[in-house]
């Protein structure tokens, strides 16, 4: 998974928070009232039919669904709470678009989730790497 600002193509920032929060040791930084390109790649390729991020349904687009590569636009204006079938909690913080704190930190290249499916439709994340 990868996030980039649509206006300029820049990756989002993240910072290391150590043990400060229960959910993650790293916090992803997003600007409110902003649009992001969300890229998702599944290995092995999986046919995705639905995605929801921050309570917002995403329109997934793929030039070849058999490739496991998808892209969507996410607008952070007016997003509600989380919902969906497979949930993964990511620690994020939102700043005003004009606040330079939204852009400080390491630039996010990707979020890699290693998953396991039990064959009955349940998917469990076995490892998370933010890089």
UniProtKB/TrEMBL annotation:
**One Pfam family per UniProt:** CNRIP1
The UniProt entry's GO CC annotations, sorted and at most eight, read:
plasma membrane
Gene Ontology MF, one = type 1 cannabinoid receptor binding
Subunit structure, briefly? Interacts with the cannabinoid receptor CNR1 (via C-terminus). Does not interact with cannabinoid receptor CNR2.
State the family named in the UniProt similarity comment for this chain: Belongs to the CNRIP family.
Known role: Suppresses cannabinoid receptor CNR1-mediated tonic inhibition of voltage-gated calcium channels.
Its protein name is: CB1 cannabinoid receptor-interacting protein 1
